[in-house]
Amino acid sequence: LTFHQGCGLWHSPPPGRGVDGVERPRAPPKPPAHHLFDETPLSSDPMAEASGDGSMEDRISALPDELLIHVLSHLRSRKAVQTCVLARRWRYLWRSVTCIDVSFEEFEDRAAANDLEREEVFKMFVNHLLILRERVDLKEFHLQYSLVVGVGCLSAKSDEANLWIRHALQYKAQTVKIGNHSEPLQLLPSVFTSTYLKRLHITNAQLILGFFDRLRKGCPALEYLFLSTCDIEDLDIFSDTLKAVSRGPLWC
Questions:
Q1: How far apart are the C-alpha atoms of 119 and 39, rounded to whole Å?
Q2: CA distance 129 to 134
Q3: Were both Cys, which of 15, 195, 200, 212 would link to 233 (CB 3.0–4.6 Å)?
Q4: CB atoms within 10 A of CB 125
Q5: Domain extents in the chain
């Protein structure tokens, strides 16, 4: 697969099968807040315990909201959510973070009957996270997923991921990183519509015929593209805006 700067032309062998373009369902009704934390127990933290019983001055909580939110925006989303139990001061700060970083690996420490149960817990967490967060613009959205192989339709199992990406782009995320550790995610071209997206990283995904044409038209500000272990079906891919393209192994 080659990219020619200027005209922005890619070449790849003939396409294979893709996924359908059926519109995704709407988000579920807003759940009670406590459901978000049912599967996210806070690990033991001496600093949290000290600040909770008053034996140590809690200087961190005295910082301005803007600074605390900036710090939380650099944590994985599950860790950021867990800070809500530190003190009343922290209860809702996580809702205003400008970077969402969700990873299936964070849920591997949970005692689950099987991988399917762990996957369902992960999807519930992300869905509730996006529903309960404040409607603030995002700077970055990172998703590390892992589809459970052999259970259910892979197209249907990719539906949530497409919804999550759509949400991030609707809230003006400038950087989107999508990774997957099992079967390729089936990404819908219609999801990628944003005049704010500048950086896109995709690892282990199926990019159907017409994906890059949609990306060119739907994301006119895109400057940096990274692809690795992706199944690409397009013969020719044009881009006049890309400044840099990086790639790992690709399947065409």
A1: 12
A2: 10
A3: 15
A4: 23
A5: 32-43+59-251
